Amino acid sequence: MGADGATMDKRVPRDFETLRATILDRRASLPKRIAQIAAYALDNPDDIAFGTAASIAASAGVQPSTLIRFAQQLGFDGFTSLQQVFRERLRERNSSYDERLAALRAKAEEGAGHRAIFDGFVAAASTSLSDISRALNDAHFEEAIALLAKAETIYVLAKRRSYPVASYIAYALGKLKIRNQLVESAAGLNAEMIGFATPRDAVIAISFSPYAPATIEETRAIAEQGVPIVAITDSSFSPLAQFAKVWFEVSEADFGGFRSISATMALAMALTVAVGEKRREAGRRRKG
């Protein structure tokens, strides 16, 4: 029995990814204040993990009682039970790569040697690709292509785990002879680089929880310049979503704590090639 006298439901989220998916699934029906703390929780999971009810409520701009109602809305008997999910996520995220590799070795020893590791990553990639294939909104996809195709310059913003995707986009755009700017500078000139962007340009911004602060700040700055943004992220509560004209939610599966970028890369490749094709079509019409 929970503290409020209710029996705990077996479907109560027991890990962060399930919890996140549950919140996103219910976001449209959440009362205003509970939706506010839900957004704060997904954007600031570390604060939820170790903050006090009073400090979290103050930061989120709600009353402490809202935290309890938020937890109970998700089936928990109280805020402390919900907080345990956030703490477990932090422990998993902070596990060292050596620990993750040790876990993979154990899986390999239990199964078919190192082939089991390969199969695990293939399974994670397949899950990610299957999920995005089902979830992709065709209208949003076409809107993003049209927005990027008419841009004079496409700026690409990403850091950390998302950076390989941004690097590929810039490479492919260059091969397609589409003017682009990957925002990176060893000299620390990122602000100056994005300062050249105008509303005639466009941005592809990529970031996933725990969102890279530099990507968020650069996206905010370029949005304030009136530059339209296409965002690739993992939640409607993502900081990137609020700045974007079009955004895509991508949920990546993981194996042994190593998260795939297969779905993100597939979306990036499709966007890039489709933009190149749309620009070629426009060029043929002008010549015709």
From TrEMBL:
Residue span, HTH rpiR-type domain: 17-93
Any one Gene Ontology MF annotation carried by this entry is:
DNA-binding transcription factor activity
Q: Which UniProt keywords apply?
A: DNA-binding, Transcription, Transcription regulation
The record ties this protein, via InterPro entries, to: Homeodomain-like_sf, HTH_RpiR, RpiR-like, RpiR-like_SIS, SIS_dom, SIS_dom_sf, WH-like_DNA-bd_sf
Q: Which CDD domains match?
A: SIS_RpiR (cd05013)
- In this protein, which residues make up the domain named SIS? 144-282
Query: What biological process terms from GO does the record include?
Result: carbohydrate derivative metabolic process
Indicate yes or no for the key word Repeat. Answer: no
Q: What's one Pfam family here? A: SIS
- Return the protein name: RpiR family transcriptional regulator
| Species of origin | Mesorhizobium atlanticum
